[in-house]
Amino acid sequence: MKCRVCREPAVIDIRRHNANFCSDHFLRLVRDQTTKAIDEFQMIRPGERVLVAVSGGKDSLALWDVLNELGYEADGLYIGLGIGGYSDRSGEMTRAFAADRGLTLHEVDLRAEYDTDVPTAAKATRRVPCSACGMSKRHLFDQAALDGGYDAVATGHNLDDEAAVLFGNTLRWQTEYLARQLPVLPARPGFPRKIKPLVRLGEREMAAYCVLRGIDYIVEECPMAVGNKHLGYKEALNAIEATSPGSKHDFYFGFLARAAERFRDAAPAALESGDLATCERCGSPSTSEVCAFCRLIERSAGHEPVTLTRKGKPL
Q1: Quick check: helix, strand or coil at residue 283?
Q2: If you ran DSSP here, which 8-state letter would residue 69 be given?
Q3: How many domains does the chain have?
Q4: Dihedral pair phi/psi, residue 181, rounded to 5°
Q5: Which residues constitute the domain of residue 160?
Q6: Predicted confidence (pLDDT) per residue in 275-289, tens digit
Q7: 4 in a domain, yes or no?
Q8: CA triple 191-48-186, angle to 5 deg
Q9: What is the DSSP letter of 221?
Q10: What would the pLDDT profile of 113-135 be if each residue is shown by its tens digit?
Q11: Nearest CA among 70, 27, 29, 28 for reference residue 52
């Protein structure tokens, strides 16, 4: 197996490109594809500061690494979600990555700062854990970016992630979500710009990038994501991709090119116009007097922490 560029031994094949790459040219491909996404969708402008949402997983750590390799001013933010040993290991991976590279890492700990965590909040409010988690992360990332003067929040969503979310939203024709499933969500009053620079790269490529760059990351899936429909959608698309390479790319980028604009009017008018109230607790934009995050905290703070177990043993 030879590299398509230099004919040296290849380390990875990418079937949707019908090509193999050696280590150097694969790393260049990742950087080039990230740059292409940033430029195509005008994600980052010269001189802007980026806050990378880091979780200890391969995608977010790879994204942080790539952005710094490309010369962007990118700092990280890690949120301690209190998901048992999984969060402990994720935090350790993230701190080690930042320390080894001399990067700036900010941290927010739900238990220490809000007297709750994701497992406890999910139980106290009877919300699906992924819902409580996602809401908390969105609020805290937005708040940290605005307080820190960052121009954009970058997340490690890759092509596989975006195709799977699009698949689920299309199956149920969730038009409000389809209206906002874009590589860039512009800044609005009270909200920073949201960007996804890895949308041209797949999950397998990001894992390979981490191996070749010597990035240690947490391999295990979040224990609270078991049964998440998103994982099932990924499996279904993987089966299609195996027999028809490039299907994920064509599905997602075909949507952006041919269909995304058709759903623009489905976005909630208040969100698009910025015509929102202000949360009386935290001052964030909200559709009601108290924002969803503050309501979550009010209902769960002070509750007995939930201990996650598997086969009777703490996770």
Answers
A1: coil
A2: H
A3: 1
A4: -85, 80
A5: 41-314
A6: 788 999 999 999 899
A7: no
A8: 35
A9: P
A10: 999 999 999 999 998 889 999 99
A11: 70
